[in-house]
Write a sequence for this structure.
């Protein structure tokens, strides 16, 4: 079974840091670009960041550029999102997602989503 | 900035056809994906590359693209289709972009 399991969410004060992890199983992790998508309470989906299959290319939403860092360990089938300088507007459920097609990004959408992990930024 | 505009809400009677549009403000032509999200659940991909259905998605879900607008069509709409729907596309500068979502109510 193809599965993505997120962890690392929690309550953090403004300006603090968190590292989210996403462990993948059931598919060849190293052959698919991966992304994080978040959803604030009662709001729509917001793309956060994506990473190429080898990790050499990363893409960020303007709202997190310079504060978040996306990386991956293909040997461990794990995706990481380091979040620094957290703000109230970063409060959301964060989903780890898999590109449907191998090797490329942005063509066939995201076909596997984790259950998400909740990040709350508050004092 | 790159934007995808969806209607906030669409209502449909059971058995009828629902159409949800997604208009882009740029002419860059990249494929559109559509996602269904029910309350408390992660999204599900229902259409990719404008008009292709992943395995397991019912045939009543279809997609199309014309001009600068993508359309998700749900034929013979059923109560279980009651959900939020989001379009998504890739832009060479903004990267991934989601529409704001459309609440489909099956009355």
């Amino acid at each position: 079974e193809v599965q993505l399991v997120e962890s690392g969410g929690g309550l953090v004060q403004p300006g603090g840091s968190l590292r989210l992890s996403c462990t993948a199983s059931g598919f060849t992790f190293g052959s698919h670009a991966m992304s994080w998508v978040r959803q604030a309470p009662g709001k729509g989906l917001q793309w956060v960041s994506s990473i190429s299959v080898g990790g050499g290319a990363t893409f960020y939403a303007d709202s997190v550029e310079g504060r978040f860092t996306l990386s991956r360990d293909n040997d461990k089938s794990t995706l990481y999102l380091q979040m620094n300088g957290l703000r109230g507007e970063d409060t959301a459920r964060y989903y780890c997602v898999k590109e449907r097609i191998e090797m490329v990004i942005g063509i066939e959408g995201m076909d596997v989503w984790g259950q998400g992990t909740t990040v709350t930024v508050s004092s | 900035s790159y934007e995808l505009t969806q209607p906030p809400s669409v209502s449909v009677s059971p058995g009828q056809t629902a159409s949800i549009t997604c208009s882009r403000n740029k002419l860059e032509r990249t494929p559109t994906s559509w996602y269904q999200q029910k309350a408390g659940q992660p999204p599900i991909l229902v259409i990719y590359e404008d008009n292709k259905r992943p395995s397991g998605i019912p045939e009543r879900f279809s997609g199309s693209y014309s001009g600068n607008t993508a359309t998700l069509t749900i034929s013979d709409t059923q109560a279980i289709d009651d959900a939020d729907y989001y379009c998504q596309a890739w832009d060479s500068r903004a990267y991934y972009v989601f529409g704001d979502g459309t609440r489909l109510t099956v009355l």
Remarks:
- The beta strands of chain B are 4-5, 9-12, 18-24, 32-37, 44-47, 61-66, 69-74, 83-91, 95-98, 102-106.
- The interface with chain A takes residues 30-31, 33, 35, 37, 42-45, 48-49, 52, 54, 84, 86, 88, 90, 95-101 of chain B (CB under 8 Å).
- The mean pLDDT of chain B is 95.
